[in-house]
Structure formats: structure tokens, C-alpha cells
């Protein structure tokens, strides 16, 4: 899955990281950054 949202499960790097939106605040901060990167990457393709 390439969909990524802070309110949904976010899978990055093929499921190496599966983040759930507000489990941990520091993970949430990382996820917000990853959201932008992943979204930009998907849009660029």
C-alpha cells in the first residue's frame, strides 16, 4: 500500500515500517515527515 495518512495506517518501505497515526507522538512526528516524502514520491511517479 502506498496510501499514507496521519489518520490511517501508513506502510513505508514495503512494510518494514507500519505506523498507526497517533500511537506515539515521536513516531507521529516522523510519520508527518514521511507522509510528505512518500506523497511527493508517489505523485512524482
From TrEMBL:
The keyword Transferase applies. GO terms for molecular function: kinase activity. Keywords: Kinase, Receptor, Transferase. This is Chitin elicitor receptor kinase 1-like protein.
